[in-house]
């Protein structure tokens, strides 16, 4: 069968009959496969998001500095409050900075609430390399 200008759209190439074999029909679309791949990608992203939220974004652990006192050339005492799930414990990162904002002391402290309590009030003596200007709680996260 030869192609004529009546069966070929304008601008399409015309090949000699029988030389290149039969022309393929346009590819069949696979909407089911596309949908399954999209669902798998959404599920994978959802699992990654959940894992990262559990690791870094748990709002149940909230810390506030109450006061920092007893500032000397080698220490600062930080009083802080941590909110945890009832009876839970937390690991908090404390640091001290000098007047220029440079870090002069850093320590990780584990605090635990009494059974059924959600709030922990803790006091920690933080050793420093030089005279601190401020003591602060950087973050708290679940212990373990």
TrEMBL record:
InterPro entries, A to Z: DUF4307
Name of one Pfam family that matches: DUF4307
Stretches for region Disordered: 1-26
UniProtKB keywords: Membrane, Transmembrane, Transmembrane helix
TM annotation in the entry: 32-53
Protein name: DUF4307 domain-containing protein
Species of the source: Micromonospora nigra
């Amino acid at each position: 069968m030869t192609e004529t200008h009546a069966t070929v759209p304008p601008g399409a190439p015309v090949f000699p009959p029988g030389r290149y074999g039969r022309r393929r029909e346009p590819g069949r679309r696979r909407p089911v496969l596309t949908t399954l791949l999209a669902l798998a990608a959404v599920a994978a992203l959802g699992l990654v998001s959940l894992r990262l939220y559990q690791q870094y974004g748990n709002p149940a652990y909230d810390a506030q500095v109450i006061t920092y006192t007893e500032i000397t050339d080698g220490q600062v005492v930080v009083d802080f409050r941590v909110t945890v799930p009832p009876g839970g414990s937390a690991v908090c990162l404390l640091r001290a900075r000098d007047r220029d904002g440079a870090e002069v002391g850093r320590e990780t402290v584990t605090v635990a609430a009494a059974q059924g309590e959600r709030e922990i009030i803790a006091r920690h003596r933080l050793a420093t390399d030089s005279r601190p200007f401020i003591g602060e709680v950087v973050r708290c996260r679940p212990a373990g």
